[in-house]
Write the structure tokens for this entry.
Amino acid sequence: QITLKESGPTLVKPTQTLTLTCSFSGFSLSTSGVGVGWIRQPPGKALEWLALIYWDDDKRYSPSLKSRLTITKDTSKNQVVLTMTNMDPVDTATYFCAQIGGFWSNYVYFDSWGQGTLVTVST
Amino acid sequence: DIQMTQSPSSLSASVGDRVTITCRASQSIGIYLNWYQQKPGKAPKVLIFSASSLKSGVPSRFSGSGSGTDFTLTINSLQPEDFATYYCQQSYTGHTFGQGTKLDIK
């Protein structure tokens, strides 16, 4: 059974750096073809992809947010960490992590998702 | 960046109806198109991948079609549990989601 769970602060101040951790079980990020991504959703709004990391440490970022994002993995802990710098109130959102599916067919999709964690940016 | 535009933004339908949601990409994306269902307070769930492949465990009343820039999600014989918000997502270059289509009960 695959499970993912996001953790991190619920409240951050403007200009601060956000660090979120995705802890997962049921798969390993050392296995070929495995990847974990981050997606966010502002309240009442659409989903927005942020970043993705693969088993071979290949990293992909949303072009519009690339300068503010860093994604890393700790294979031994079964964790993926996302940092986002210079937080702003518009970054208030629920942040999800998700395991990808379809890598070997080349048609990647977000398969198993965490429950999400709400991060509010406010003074 | 590739932009994804869904239509309509909202849709009212009745149990038993057949509904179609459209997704248009700003450039050709082949069949690198996925569909998700999201219910309030929950994470999205993948329904269709590579434009027309039904994810294991998803009811066969859901189907997807299209290629290039124009795609559709069709739900035949709507069930009460199908009222939700639906998103398309391209994986041709990066991963861009559409703005969503909210399907509610008429």
Remarks:
- Chain B touches chain A through 24 residues (CB under 8 Å).
- The two ends of chain B are 36 Å apart (CA to CA).
